[in-house]
Here is the input.
Amino acid sequence: MPGIYLDHAATTPVRPEVREAMLPYLKEQYGNPSGLYQLAVEAEEAMEAARKTIAATLGCETEEIYFTSGGTESDNWAIKSAVEAAKKRKDFGTGGRRCCHIITTQIEHHAVLHTCRALEEEGCEVTYLRVNEMGQISVRELEKAIRPDTVLISVMTANNEVGTIQPVREIGKIARRHHILFHTDAVQAYGHLPLPVKRLGIDMMSASGHKCNGPKGIGFLYVRKGVDLPPFIHGGGQERGKRAGTENVPGIVGLGMSARLAHTKMAEREKKTAAMRDYLIRRLLNEVPFARLNGSLRYRLAGNCNISFQFIEGAALLVLLDEEGICAAAGSACSTGSKEPSHVLKAMGLPDNIAHGTLRLTIGYQNTMEEMDRAVECIKKCVARLRQNSPEFEDYMSGRKMPLSFGIRL
Ligand SMILES: *Cc1c(COP(=O)(O)O)cnc(C)c1O
Here is the structure.
């Protein structure tokens, strides 16, 4: 039986149309866009066509899109350069404004969190906003956190672990009212939600190709015209002198194609994905005892299902699911393979022992209902098998111990 891929928040398969669009630029169309001959001009035109496509998806100007190596670079650039620009301003260090203050959240991706930590080492102060049990920030708390020296608000559009969508429009309004730059990491949201950056009051937005069926190692940063963002990578004059280095032409062409396809029949595709998600959530909660849904039901990415199963280890569950050909993720700090429970679940108030039993299933448009059924059957079987070997589960079943109270059940 073919495997089932349910880890679309980690990365997505490249669409065939994207691969086909890229191929000429890995073959005969190898020109350097900076050149002055026909081969180079053709590469440059392909790159600018991709930029135009992406700008159209956001309702912005082509000059407001800068290609980067992906979400991590876009986040680093937006945050570090916003601070650098503020420090260069004449009034910096006068009128008591000696510090540089950033407002972000406790549930950001590490690309944002670790960038902020690095800036703290350099003397910046950072407020990490709390989230409620659904994973949403309070805009009132955000507004209260603003100080005279606040130079940047960075709040993700949607979370990669629990899929919670933040009140971006309201955050944009607050940022504008206080004349503070607003950056949003939209890596998980781009291609899934409409993001009219002007109407949402977004000044800078990060996105990544491989999270929306494009290639890896390519992404973009939207920077509103009028925001004077210093360059992040110094060198040649590429990307209007803001991001040096010979452009990743095949990647940019692929990103353009994936952006175009993601924004074609988006609502229809997302509706289908959400139906699979709701079915998966309902069946797991109804058919596996001691299961709990993490995150919001209402403000949730269409493809995200994040469930904690009491009395098991998420990492152990992943091993069993892998044997069944199912690709999924757990609720621990991903890449490091660390046993620390996720900072996101922690911030949402989930006790460590429950966070440890977390499974993240993220659905893509090519998944099917039949796959949801097969996944549910496998998960039921694997969870039961793990619980058979759990002393805590045995204690509970024999009445020696009460379970912790559990949250949302459908
Ligand atoms: C994947 C991801 C990133 C990093 O993007 P890369 O292109 O892999 O560097 C940043 N933020 C979020 C929310 C992500 O999901």
About this structure: The pocket of pyridoxal-5'-phosphate is lined by residues 70-72, 75, 109, 111, 156, 160, 185, 187-188, 208, 210-211, 219 (CB under 6 Å). The CA atoms of residues 73 and 374 lie 38 Å apart.
